[in-house]
Amino acid sequence: MKCRFRASNIAIRSRQILKIMVVPCMLQTGCANDATVRVATAADQQALIKAAAASAPNIQAGDKIKVTVFDEDRLSGEYQVDPAGFVSLPLAGTVKAAGLSKLQLEKALAVKFSGEYLRDPKVTVDIASFRPFYILGEVSKPGEYDYKSGLNVVSALAVAGGTTYRASESTVDIQHVGETNFKEYPISSNIPVLPGDLIRVPMRYF
After folding, report:
1. Is 192's pLDDT higher than 90?
2. Total structural domains in the chain?
3. Burial (CB count within 10 angstroms: exposed 0-12, middle 13-18, buried 19+), residue 172
4. Which among 89, 39, 96, 84 has a CA at the least distance from the CA of 68?
5. Could you tell me if 70 and 45 lie in one domain?
6. Distance, CA of 142 to CA of 156 (rounded, Å)
7. What is the Cα gyration radius of the chain?
């Protein structure tokens, strides 16, 4: 009887220990790597660096653009690109902006403004502010942050208050706009962060 009693106690304790270990793990966003995460290749990293170095990135949903129409103060101003990628302006109406370069949008707006009201309008477009980036997982202050040119993985972690003691010390997972899965990148100042990026800091294995 004592043997059975001890075996029963050991089984109960084992289940309790398992709950203690597993439940907190499930509550932590970065406890385990997502099965869909793959390690970014050298080609992935080079493509990311090239995209960040582009002097005139394409306009995307969430960006705020500054439109200047020469001699038309009523039409000039800052406008938000909506989640569907469109921007609404006086006279021009609703115009598709996401995916266009500044030059392409300038030409599209000039066509829209042309007509009886404006003759040969001169339009310039600049990006007033980029869409934010997001960081979650093992950081002190997860959330949404304003994007600034030149941002990289190390500076993004600093913006979020740094990592927790549980965080991976070597890698982060990043999902770029238009991607459906995360890719694993090294924590390095050589890895740029792009507008709209979703960064996840996983938990390290002790």
Report:
1. yes
2. 2
3. buried
4. 89
5. no
6. 11
7. 25
Please report the pLDDT score of residue 9 as a whole number: 45
Count of beta carbons in the 10 Å neighbourhood of residue 118: 19
> Does 125 share its domain with 138?
no
Residue at 157: amino acid letter: L
Question: Among the three residues 129, 156, 183, which one is the final residue of a domain in this structure?
Answer: 129
pLDDT band at 178 (very low <50, low <70, confident <90, very high): confident
Q: What is the pLDDT of residues 138-152, one digit of tens each?
A: 999 999 999 988 899
Q: Are 190 and 48 in contact (CB under 8 A)?
A: no
- Tell me the residue range of the domain where 41 lies: 28-54+131-201
Nearest alpha carbon to residue 89 among 71, 102, 104, 74: 74
Domain limit, last residue, from 129, 155, 180: 129
Q: Is residue 90 part of a domain?
A: yes
Q: Which of 31-40, 61-70, 172-181 has the lowest mean pLDDT?
A: 31-40
What are the pLDDT digits (tens) for 1-40?
Answer: 444 444 444 444 444 433 333 333 333 444 444 557 888 8
Sorted by sequence, the CB contacts under 8 Å of residue 62 that are 6+ apart come out as: 80, 81, 83, 130, 131, 132, 195, 196
